Amino acid sequence: MFGLLCVPYEVLANIVGNIDFDDVFNLALSCKELKFLITEESICKSIVQTKIKYSNEALAAVSAGGGNARALRRAAKRRNALATVNPFTVATIGFCDAYVYNKGVLCYTVDDRVRILDLHNSADHEVVISIPGLLTQALSNIHDNSRGTFQILYYSDRIISCLYRSSGPDSTAWLIAFSVRHRAVLVAEELDSTEKIFVRHNREFLYFGTNSDVGTDGHKKWVIQGHSFRNRKWFEKKVHLPDMVGSEIGSTICFEFHKKHFYALSNQTSFEVEEIDWTSFYHCVRFPLDSPCEELKEKTNNNDMWRRQHQEGPIDDRWTFLRLDTDESTGDLRIVESRKEWYLGASRSQRTYYTTDIIFPTQQHDDPAYSLPGPSTSSSDTFDNSLLPNDPI
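^ F-box domain-containing protein, sequence as received from the core. Prediction below:
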């Protein structure tokens, strides 16, 4: 009887090429003869750069020009820790008043300092920013309103966005974006509203939104405004999202940048507390970062991205977690939602993570040579897509 150890190397390489990343890692752990799959640099490079090429570990290996074997093992440990909810290492970093963790970077405040630590790259020192110094640099009249509140909103691409609310009868709120690399203030904008405020940015654009636009039905709606770092000015038009239901960021609605678009995602159907529809769907809107306008705004069809049927059992909305995440294999944006549910009326609840592809309708154009990229395909497309929302990660 022949086994994997007896087949030619070319056959084994073909087998490895047709199974997913986690199966390759588990195969290498099955016996010492196959351990080379996770230690030999050239083989690891092929595995990492084809199966998880959009992961942080793969991108770091490309940037460093090597270290794919270490990247493979590190990615495997991370994925296993998340899948089993069992971290392979735990460390106390420090104590803080508030923190934001994004893209492997921890930003936290202690007293009158902002501290930034790159955990993903195992940085051995922190970047420390004085909050009074930052406010003095951003706002010329800050000395008259020095007793306010400071809040970190977002961090990405070595830029930190924060909110400052002054105290007093004529209190004001300011959105401040600060370049950690150049120690320069990029944005200092007085805000009309801070209701449910959020910020997303990269090195070129900054967008913030508030749940402050009151619709004709009396419900508050989201309004988004963008800024170009390169041109150093705000876009003239604001983007209104009257049909996006949900006000709790990370639970019922979420926002994210992906490539050259701004995405907004909701898992709600109605503004009413009791929904009429017994089948719920995801709803997504996107528009170009460099041209935020109603004419270029795209919206998914209401029934294209199935979420769940209420007959599957009750759920505890307090534990619902919603976000947009980049698929490490394809680089496409996907929906990730965690729900605590009593599936099919079971007496015991469970928390399950669901992933769903984002499907935008194909746009028609007069020129037959013109086409927009549609949803990406992967090996999972050979299965019944209707089962995907029920499959845990």
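The first strand starts at residue 98 and ends at 102.
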